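Why Erythromycin biosynthesis sensory transduction protein eryC1? Reviewers of the renewal asked for a concrete example.
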Amino acid sequence: MNVPFLDIKAQNSSIASELSEAMGKVMESAAFAGGPFVKAFEDEFVAFCGVQHAVGVSNGTAALWAVLMAMGVGPGDAVITVPNTFIATVEAISLCGATPIFVDVEPGTWTMDPAKLEQAICPRVKAILPVQLYGQMADMDAILNIADKHGISVVEDAAQAHGAAYNGRRAGSMGTAGCFSFYPGKNLGACGEGGAVVTDDAELAAAVRRFREHGQSAKYYHDEIGFNARLDGLQGAVLSVKLKQLEAWNQARRENAAVYMELLDGVPGLSLPRIAEGRTHIFHLFTVQHAERDALIEHLQEKGVACGIHYPVPIHLTKAYAHLGVPAGSFPVAEQCAQQTLSLPMFPELTREQIEYVAGCIKDFVS
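Here is what the prediction returned.
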């Protein structure tokens, strides 16, 4: 049996007529760059996230960059984040001219460890940027309490957490702002690139809107240096269609995760995801850990099971950030994550038969 890591074709085919109709309306109106279809999606995403404002942008990296720029982060400043993330989290900090400061993560959830946060705070820190990793939110109450104590803003990287919740509050709604990616493989994925910023701060939302339009307050009136970071109309229309399905798709992912948990519980040497109390995990990825990760991946691939590594190199050990001079061993939990984590097939259309096959292959390897 061949089990894909992700099956975007299956998802899109289930709503093909709705997608075609939505795209057709954009074509008829020629509202390609921003416009009414983007505005409609922004309004719908506001309601979904439980916030006051949503601003569609070109991708998740632009969302992070735009927020930090709108908050005045710049040269001489620092932003605290985690090393086990996609590089875009840290690139956004660098694009502002600021310096990333890393803190380690909690075992099991692999999200920012609040116990390590306070010791990383210094006068240069302008923001804290927790990553809601794999579909589960970080310990936001603890992070926000520390941030409030020091008068520091919190920006959520919610690129993997569309619909995740912390004690009933949706990802993106707890910090000063939340940043989303709509890369096609996300739980809410466009048919191309896309992103969004959500916030309750009207001034911040207005600043992000200016940034995405070359710093314009009105056409050809540029108040500041910005960027071309608009969400296009086709993607806005697509996202409106898909947002209606997101709750059901997330529930299907949770059900698939429960089957994995049932079948893999007690497998020697295999660590399963930990769902922290009060958190709603939407399983963008289903990640496990094993000391012989690379050999296990090779075994699974030989059996026709596609899998991934998220992420093989912590950011502080990449060539891109070697200039920071942070040595190996600085963040042992994140570094263990890089060495031992693998992501198993996870998507709403995954069948029990496929999950049973994957679990059987893992048990064969361990035995």
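The mean pLDDT is 98. This is the kind of structural detail the renewal will allow us to pursue systematically.
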